[in-house]
């Protein structure tokens, strides 16, 4: 995204940060940064200054687009800086230290599929790497260029392609352009009483195409946890041609063409539009929280609920550290946040049954509250506020030289307790070794299934001033090793990008890797699409 509001959201005058998360007016001030830094002994005494685009060494573009494409392309320094990287901790601290990496030569903003195809044709002829870019919220190095194998780099920003083109109310689906940001998409569906019902933490700052290309996970904790389940058909522009799959409710006709591009992260083609399955907007909601003094019993309670047919919309378990950090608990308890919703019938009975199951495993909590009539309980409200605020606080701590980042995974229930213990022990030891400071490592379960769950870890430790990226890389390497040994996925919903490539290479079967490379060569013969993502 450019550093200022764009035509995709004309009613929003807030300014996006080019270097950090979200909006500039929501970033912690210097005093709050210092206050947070005091909680991590060994951090800086004063925050790093907010970086300025004017201080970056931005070279003149190495290529010039032809006149036929010039109106789609800009070399504006602010636009180029804002498209240099995503929003991972590594990205934020590199910007703060004045080392953002390879700045794209040009930023293109096509408005239709043919313009995407024309840009790819030109880039292939002139050895220009093309990095598809939606909202720029990647936290795994998915939207940056690393290396020097290409003559130039073009950031392909799709956010000008942001319209809901057609709504089929009979089949309850919609044809949506891939550059639509979450709020822009939902605003167009709301008059029809419909919703995509996909709300990742990055909802404000990510696009439909980004969700599809990364197989994004949404806020809802059970059943339809990933964007995959809502896809009816995809249109994809590749250097080898444009493909459009049929709209079908289901099909057994060979390998799925949609599955080929879901999770492809822009390495095989550019998703430009999709038919998506919709839902009626929920009318009934109810939520409650449950406290546990024993984390293992809390895990058992969550597993029992996940293996029932209750299908909660929210079923998030916060360990004591995560509960304290979010303000959901201050007495050392773990907290389970439960929520149910429906478009057709009250959900109070389902919530009551889930609470009974939690109490049977030692949980305690208030009686459920229907959100149509009353606000959620204090723990639920605190968690929701912290959930949205946390990325901003991470950036504030980064300004204090702290290393604060998250990683997530998923494993079967039989492996979950040992996995969580190993992460706390071994990642904590790696952090202590590389920094000389004890790390805080918190865990929450973000998504749950009958056969397993997705633990999400937060790591916070004072870094080595000026060397914070290397510190995080050491910690991340230890985490990757733990996940691999416990047969836990390298990512449940953050995607692979470049940061997770080592773990992904270990996880995928060799024949599949062979087929993926062949597919890449067939669809992208010049090797211009997001080089270094998924495959070399």
TrEMBL record:
FAD-binding PCMH-type domain residues: 99-281
Annotated protein name in UniProt: FAD-binding oxidoreductase
Species the sequence originates in: Streptomyces osmaniensis
Origin: domain of life: Bacteria
InterPro entries linked: Alkyl-DHAP_Synthase, FAD-bd_oxidored_4_C, FAD-bd_PCMH, Oxid_FAD_bind_N
Membrane-crossing residue ranges in chain numbering: none
Pfam family, one: FAD_binding_4
């Amino acid at each position: 995204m450019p550093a200022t509001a764009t035509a995709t959201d004309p009613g929003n005058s807030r300014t996006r940060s080019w270097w950090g998360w979200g909006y500039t007016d929501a970033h912690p001030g210097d005093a709050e940064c210092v206050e947070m830094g005091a909680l991590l002994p060994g951090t800086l005494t004063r925050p790093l200054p907010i970086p300025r685009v004017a201080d970056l060494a931005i070279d003149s573009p190495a290529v010039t687009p032809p006149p036929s494409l010039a109106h789609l392309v800009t070399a504006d320094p602010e636009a180029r800086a804002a498209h240099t990287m995503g929003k991972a901790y590594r990205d934020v601290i590199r910007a703060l230290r004045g080392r953002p990496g390879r700045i794209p030569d040009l930023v293109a903003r096509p408005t239709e599929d043919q313009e995407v195809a024309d840009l790819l044709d030109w880039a292939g002829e002139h050895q220009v790497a093309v990095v598809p870019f939606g909202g720029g919220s990647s936290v795994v190095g998915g939207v940056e260029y690393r290396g020097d194998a290409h003559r130039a780099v073009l950031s392909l920003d799709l956010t000008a392609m942001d319209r809901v083109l057609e709504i089929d109310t009979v089949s309850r689906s919609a044809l949506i352009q891939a550059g639509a940001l979450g709020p822009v998409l939902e605003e167009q569906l709301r008059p029809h009483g419909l919703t995509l019902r996909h709300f990742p933490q990055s909802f404000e700052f990510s696009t439909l195409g980004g969700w599809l290309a990364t197989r994004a996970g949404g806020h809802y904790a059970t059943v339809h946890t990933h964007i995959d389940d809502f896809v009816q058909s995809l249109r994809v522009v590749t250097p080898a041609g444009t493909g459009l799959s049929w709209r079908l409710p289901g099909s057994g006709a060979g390998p799925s063409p949609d599955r080929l591009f879901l999770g492809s992260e822009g390495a095989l083609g550019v998703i430009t539009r999709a038919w998506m399955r919709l839902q009626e907007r929920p009318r009934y909601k109810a939520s409650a929280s449950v406290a546990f003094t024993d984390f293992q019993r809390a895990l058992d309670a969550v597993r029992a609920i996940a293996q029932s047919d209750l299908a909660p919309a929210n079923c998030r378990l916060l360990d004591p550290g995560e509960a304290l950090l979010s303000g959901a608990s201050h007495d050392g308890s773990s907290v389970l946040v439960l929520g149910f919703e429906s478009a057709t019938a009250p959900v109070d009975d389902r919530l009551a049954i889930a609470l009974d199951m939690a109490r049977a495993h030692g949980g305690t909590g208030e009686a459920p509250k229907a959100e149509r009539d009353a606000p959620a309980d204090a723990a639920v409200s605190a968690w929701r506020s912290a959930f949205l605020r946390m990325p901003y606080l991470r950036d504030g701590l980064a300004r204090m030289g702290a290393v604060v980042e998250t990683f997530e995974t998923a494993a079967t229930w039989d492996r979950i307790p040992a996995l969580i213990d190993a992460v706390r022990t071994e990642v904590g030891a790696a952090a202590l070794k590389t920094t000389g400071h004890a790390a805080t490592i918190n865990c929450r379960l973000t998504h749950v299934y009958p056969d397993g769950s997705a633990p999400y870890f937060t790591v916070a430790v004072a870094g080595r001033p000026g060397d914070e990226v290397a510190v995080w890389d050491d910690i991340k390497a230890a985490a990757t090793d733990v996940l691999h040994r416990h047969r836990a996925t390298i990512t449940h919903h953050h995607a692979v990008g470049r940061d997770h490539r080592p773990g992904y290479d270990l996880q995928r079967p060799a024949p599949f890797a062979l087929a993926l490379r062949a597919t890449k060569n067939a669809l992208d013969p010049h090797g211009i699409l997001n080089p270094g993502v998924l495959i070399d």
